[in-house]
Specification:
- By secondary structure, the protein is mainly α.
- The chain folds into two domains: 114 residues, Four Helix Bundle (Hemerythrin (Met), subunit A) (Up-down Bundle), CATH 1.20.120; 117 residues.
- The protein contains ten helices and no strands.
- Helix 2 runs antiparallel to helix 5, helix 3 packs antiparallel against helix 4 and helix 5 packs across helix 9.
- 17% of the residues are buried.
Length: 284
């Protein structure tokens, strides 16, 4: 009796899980998150981005082994095969959870073929090793890059605003108020919204300087020129001039930055923020 009850309960649990998935199947994307231990090899925990440099080294070493095997250059082939072995084994040392995903036998075959001057076998071994690399990249590369290389703005704030997101929403509101005002023939309100927008953009520029220390300032000279054109069109231009000026300003001051930062930041939040079961089960 007890065993039958256990089986029934397991069946009910599986049915419930399947039901949840079925309800959400048009909204669910299944991804594999990398082990938390990889974080120590990325900024900010690591200043040198050791994981990235290890990957770069492996790519260069695989190319070198193939190149020198093709040229039958034994000295360089042995040298680079040794470097490849060193960095490939380092993957399992850096992220122990991935030790089982490695193919040490393939690596051993490459080294043996290189020592015995079986150059065609070296090439075959490299193909197998590349497939091994791809299997991990398919599962983890996009998620890992987003989690550890996409910018994190959650700890930034603009003076006078409760959060960076709140400040961004204020600027977005000013843009829309500006458009609504001049379309509705309320020129004074349009100029007032423009003044607010320009002020908030300048405040926001101080935050951008935290990362872009040597890059272009915000607002950049091009954006500053677009602001001047916008202001002039509000004073003397017709409706078409105002619309064109606002469109240009929105692309330069909003869309170009969002295309780089907002997409990656939003996805990073999805991967890193913990969701409760109540949130996950919503399907309205």
């Amino acid at each position: 009796m007890r065993w039958s009850v256990f089986v029934v309960l397991q069946g009910l649990i599986l049915s419930a899980l399947f039901g949840v998935y079925y309800i959400h199947q048009d909204r669910v994307i299944v991804l594999k998150k990398p082990p938390a231990s990889i974080a120590q090899w990325y900024k900010p925990q690591n200043k040198r981005q050791v994981w990235l440099h290890t990957m770069f080294n492996l790519r260069r070493e695989m190319l070198a082994v193939g190149m020198y095997a093709s040229a039958q250059d034994d000295k360089n082939l042995q040298d680079w095969a040794g470097k490849l072995s060193q960095h490939y084994q380092k993957i399992g040392e850096m992220v122990p959870e991935w030790q089982g995903r490695l193919s040490p036998n393939v690596l051993a075959d490459i080294k043996s073929a290189a020592q015995e001057k079986r150059y065609s076998d070296v090439a075959l071994g490299l193909e197998k090793l590349e497939q091994n690399c791809k299997s991990c990249h398919v599962d983890f590369r996009a998620v890992t890059a987003t989690m550890y290389r996409a910018p994190n703005f959650s700890n930034l704030s603009v003076e006078g605003a409760p959060s960076l997101n709140a400040h961004m929403r204020t600027m977005s509101t000013s843009v829309n108020k500006l458009k609504l005002a001049f379309v509705g023939g309320r020129d004074d309100d349009a100029l007032s919204a423009f003044v607010d927008l320009k002020r908030d953009m300048n405040s926001f520029g101080a935050v951008c300087g935290n990362c872009h220390k040597q890059g272009k300032p915000y607002p950049s000279p091009v954006i500053t020129e677009a602001l001047s054109v916008m202001e002039q069109s509000l004073k003397t231009g017709d409706l078409k001039d105002k619309g064109r000026a606002l469109g240009t300003l929105a692309v330069l001051a909003c869309a170009e930055c969002h295309g780089t930062h907002r997409i990656s930041y939003d996805i990073r939040q999805l991967f890193t923020e913990q969701k409760s079961w109540a949130e996950l089960l919503k399907h309205k």
